[in-house]
């Protein structure tokens, strides 16, 4: 009888440790990527996507298309948002030397942001995938 108790305690402990490990991995995977505190909010105000809280979690909506609605799971939410941001940035962001230009659909410059340091420039290149011209 004592041997069965020890065996069952080991199983419970092993399952508990496994659950903690999986929770930590999910937390790390679902963590949003680094976003610059100055540049990201400025660019975000021009992007067509918004984040809405719902009962089931977070959803991505489009300001331009009322039919567009995505509800990725928690682990993939920020990855999907970054994919959408990158698609938009491919047409609407231009990196020129020490500044970032935000363009409209016709390629007209809406706003120019001067970089204050290299970290901001690297953020735009890494997060949005924009290459210098």
TrEMBL record:
Top-level taxon: Bacteria
Protein name: Uncharacterized protein
